Amino acid sequence: MNIDCKTLIREAIIARENAYAPYSDFLVGAALLTAGGKIYRGCNIENAAYTPTNCAERTAFFTAAAAGEREFIALAVVGWKRNGVPEFVFPCGVCRQVMMEFCSPETFTVITAAGEDKYKTTLLRELLPSGFGPANLSG
Ligand code: THU
User: Fold this and answer.
1) Ligand 1, atom 10: nearest CA belongs to which residue?
2) d(CA 43, CA 28)
3) Which of 21, 55, 77, 129 is least surrounded, with the fewest CB atoms within 10 Å of its CB?
4) CA triplet 138, 90, 130: central angle to 5 degrees?
5) Which of 20, 24, 110 to mutate for ligand 1's pocket (most ligand atoms within 8 Å of CB)?
6) Residue closest by Cα to atom 4 of ligand 1
7) Is the distance from the beta carbon of residue 89 to the nearest atom of ligand 1 less than 6 Å?
8) Mean pLDDT across the chain, nearest whole number?
9) What is the pLDDT of residues 58-116, one digit of tens each?
10) Which residues are catalytic?
11) CB of 44 closer than 6 A to ligand 1?
């Protein structure tokens, strides 16, 4: 499927508006494209106990999965400090593992953006080489 990076980045920027990040002040938004062409948004949601914090990427995945989605094409992520400027943000290790659960490492594309026209694309395989996934438990 052809990925409309610009639309996905715009959606991630909108998703960031709902970020709940009173502790880090680092606001992140993500937009996840399904095989059916739907886009699910996610933002980071922090917690006073710190560890329950959920990243924007995982929020997008869990929202989509809870809606019954299982096939994904690409995810855009944007993030910057409340009073800062956009910077390139790459998914954390835990989010990469969640991607590994649902996505093909060979084709799933992560778009990290510091602006609508300023972005990098990376395959899941590059972000999580030799990843452990559902295929390892089948058969
Ligand atoms: N964060 C994300 O939501 N996604 C990333 O890719 C990197 C980090 C969040 C977690 C936490 O709320 C804040 O950014 C600072 O780490």
Assistant:
1) 55
2) 6
3) 129
4) 30
5) 24
6) 55
7) yes
8) 97
9) 999 999 999 999 999 999 999 999 999 999 999 999 999 999 999 999 999 999 999 99
10) 57
11) yes
Q: Is the pTM of this model over 0.85?
A: yes
Cβ–ligand 1 distance for 27 under 6 Å, the answer: no
Does position 1 have pLDDT exceeding 80, yes or no?
no
Q: Taking a C-beta distance cutoff of 8 angstroms, is the pair 105, 125 a contact?
A: yes
CA torsion 98-51-20-63 (nearest 10°) is 30
The arithmetic mean of pLDDT across residues 115-138, rounded, is 97
The two counts, helices (H) then strands (E), for the chain are 4, 5
Confidence (pLDDT) at 127: 98
- What's the rounded Cα separation, in Å, for the pair 72 and 7? 16
- ∠ at Cα 91 (42, 82), nearest 5°? 60
CA 14 to the chain's CA centroid? 14
